[in-house]
Amino acid sequence: MNIVYFYNEEWEKQYVTEKLVDENVTFLLGCIQDHPEYRNDDAEAIAIFVNSHVGKEEMDRFPKLKFIAARSTGFDHIDIAEATARGIVVSNVPTYGENTVAEQAFALLLTLSRKIYDSYKQIEQDGNFGKAGLTGFDLKGKTIGVLGTGHIGAHAIKIAKGFEMNVIAYDAFAKPELATELGFTYVSFEDLLVQSDIITVHVPYMKETHHMINMGNVGKIKRGAVLINTARGAVVETDALVHALKDGILLGAGLDVLEEENYMDDESLLFFQDHPNADALKTVLENHYLIEHPRVIITPHNAFNTREAIQRILDTSLSNIKSFEAGTAQNIVVKK
């Protein structure tokens, strides 16, 4: 099978080469958007990470495309409806990071709760070992609200129980048996906002979760709460997040994802479009407010990035490719 594989690091290219010895693989460094003029009339499959957007225009560049291997759990960067209309099968990696992403969520939370970054910066910059301004708060006894109780959310609940936190959760498709097994309580979305000292977001991004936390409901959040988002940026409306921080609704936020984060590396892309997207530009400007905010910790969509998780991603993605070629496609994404 002719495959175009968009890779991120040299060791990944070497690993895939050794595993796909019988395939005709073309490797391109970076994402699809890094190669705007590239076209392959023979490629039957492409393998991409979340930094590659695949829509109609990109599919047109691969006229024989039959299969897209998404090396991620989320697939909002792929136009599933367009792929389905063209008979292109899309597979993802459904469960590589349940512990990995949950651990990052708590790393962000602990950085905020114990003022780890402030403490480090004070010593690094000033050599000051004083404690003034560095008082944090315990996690034990706090109520954490978990939005989404899939694989990652469930693992976050297990970690929270280890900290002796009170756990409540919201999920559109509640799993009573999971609540019994892990010892948490399902509540309504509104009650979660009202009751939680910490809110951690673990829902997939889709039209139903777009701006799930927004200007219409952010005022219901318990004053002084902390928001952690390691899911997708657009689950939380940036306007609402900025408002909540300015108004003191949120004490702080730990974010591994931002809305319009794809523009943060090169904001000029927004200015030189034929029809500049004013909303996107506004969001990018608000992102700078978040980056500079003293009570906001931001990491660069890095929650997935451990050696073990990447290994699981690659192994599952390669298995998806081989299964598709064998006529037994697995982990198929279906348009909802």
Would you kindly provide a written description of the structure presented here, covering whatever features stand out?
By secondary structure, the protein is α/β, with parallel strands linked by helices. The chain has twelve helices and twelve strands. The strands form two sheets. It has a seven-stranded parallel beta sheet, sandwiched between helices. Strands 2-1-3-4-5 form a five-stranded parallel beta sheet. Helix 1 (10-19) links the parallel strand 1 (2-7) and strand 2. Helix 4 (98-113) packs across helix 6 (151-162). It is globular and about 60 Å long. The two termini are 29 Å apart.
Short summary of the structure?
This protein has 336 residues and is an alpha/beta fold.
Rounded to an integer in angstroms, the radius of gyration calculated over CA atoms is 21 Å
The profile of the biggest β sheet is: 7 strands, parallel
Strand content: 15-25%
Helical/strand content category: alpha/beta
Q: Strands of the largest sheet, in order across it?
A: 8-7-6-9-10-11-12
Poorly predicted ranges: 266-276
Distance between the termini: 29 Å
Helix and strand succession?
A: EHEEHEHEHHEHEHEHEEHEHHEH
Produce the secondary structure layout.
Elements: E1 2-7, H1 10-19, E2 24-29, E3 45-48, H2 56-60, E4 67-70, H3 80-85, E5 89-91, H4 98-113, H5 116-126, E6 143-147, H6 151-162, E7 166-170, H7 176-182, E8 185-186, H8 189-195, E9 198-201, E10 225-229, H9 238-247, E11 250-255, H10 268-271, H11 278-292, E12 296-298, H12 307-325
Parallel strand pairs: 1-2, 1-3, 3-4, 4-5, 6-7, 6-9, 7-8, 9-10, 10-11, 11-12
